[in-house]
Amino acid sequence: MKNGTKGSYKQLIVDTGIEMVEKGITVGTWGNISARDPETNLVYISPSGMDYSKIQPQHVVVMDTELNIIDGEAEPSIEKHMHVAVFNARKDVNAVIHTHPIYSTAFGVAEQNLVGVSEDFIQIVGDEIKVASPYELPGTEALGTVAVAGLGTNNAVLLPGHGALVVGGDMKMALKVSMVLEKNAQIYLYAKLLGGSGHIRKFEQSEVDAMQNFAKNHYGQKNKDLYS
Ligand SMILES: [Zn+2]
Questions:
Q1: Cα 1 to averaged position of ligand 1 atoms, centre (Å)
Q2: CA–CA separation, 167 and 148 (whole Å)
Q3: In this predicted model, what pLDDT tens digit does every residue of 77-105 receive, in sequence order?
């Protein structure tokens, strides 16, 4: 393989694209995915504007963390700046998914931070997900800068008038974060409709700390059945 590039990572991008469409996380060619190989620090990103069902491993673009293209037969996603900016800012992140999901995007459009109202969200996404600010156009370096600032140490950020960006230590976790983010946004909106007074039960800080501590220290171990 060329300059340390790995076929397994190219295949991961192909497979994740198909899974995203199957799970209804994104529609058509919207959204983009990337993975970082922690061994080489190379970034594998989905090609620009291609139908997920048509992407082949050779279309996956491999870049270094300064956006120099190492391999790939297609143009990289236009959101390459944002993906690489996240990898450069967060050493714990090896997978980035950007999508245009309906419910999460509604919060971005309303410029309202998304508070965690379900336990799984608190455990793997964060306490409160921020809307990146100010608005920046798609595909710009500036969008990457505001996305990284809004992300902070959380695992998701909302892009106003646009969509969501989620991250994970690996692709499996990023996909899970993506699903839980959208679910929490949907639950929040439905709960708002139910409560005539607009009441939403928010977790106490002690509850948030306990759940995050549990997720951090026991996640995927003894009690994996409970939270997988
Ligand atoms: Zn987008």
A1: 31
A2: 11
A3: 999 999 999 999 999 999 999 999 999 99
